[in-house]
Amino acid sequence: MQTIASLPLSGTDGVHIEILERSDTALVIRWVEPGRCHYGEQRWRRRSAHTSGTCALSRSKIRRGDAVFKPAERPAPSNAAAMISAEILGNLLDA
Q1: From the first residue on, what is the mean pLDDT of each consecutive set of 10 residues in the chain (95 residues)?
Q2: Backbone phi, then psi, for 6, in 5-degree steps?
Q3: How many domains, the chain?
Q4: What is the pLDDT at residue 5?
Q5: Are 59 and 12 in contact (CB under 8 A)?
Q6: Is the pTM of this model over 0.90?
Q7: Alpha helices by DSSP H, the chain
Q8: Which pLDDT belongs to residue 1?
Q9: Nearest to residue 74, comparing CAs of 42, 34, 36, 30?
Q10: pLDDT at position 11
Q11: Of 4, 14, 29, 70, which has the fewest Cβ atoms less than 10 A away?
């Protein structure tokens, strides 16, 4: 896993997201949702979207089957339904 010198990103609905580490299949994210939840080092895994939804970074549509990153912790965290499009994230990090 590649350590990133803290890449802060602005998510939707006031969510603050920082990518701390990344690999092709996993992320470690700091997720801060004011008034709701704060995860200092949350592990996310790459998978296919089980349902359609919206990317937490870009508000772009995610279709069932798209490659996404989702929280991978148990029990399910408050942001368990959140998804980040793997394509959008790749474009942001590789730019």
Answers
A1: 57 80 92 90 97 91 98 93 92 72
A2: 55, 100
A3: 1
A4: 47
A5: yes
A6: no
A7: 86-94
A8: 64
A9: 42
A10: 64
A11: 14
Pair 20, 6: CB distance under 8 Å: yes
CA 62, 72, 37, 8 dihedral sign is negative
Angle at 66 between CA 64 and CA 69, to 5 degrees: 110
What would the two tokens of residue 66 be? Answer: 């798209």
Nearest partner of 82 among 35, 29, 22, judged by Cα: 29
Question: Which residue, chain included where needed, has tokens 């998804």?
Answer: 83
Model pLDDT, residue 58? 85
What single letter denotes the amino acid at residue 42? Q
- Length of the chain, please? 95
Beta strands (DSSP E) in 1-95 are 2-10, 16-22, 26-33, 37-48, 53-54, 61-62, 67-71, 84-85
How far apart CA 65 and CA 17 sit, in angstroms, is: 24
CA distance 60 to 79: 18
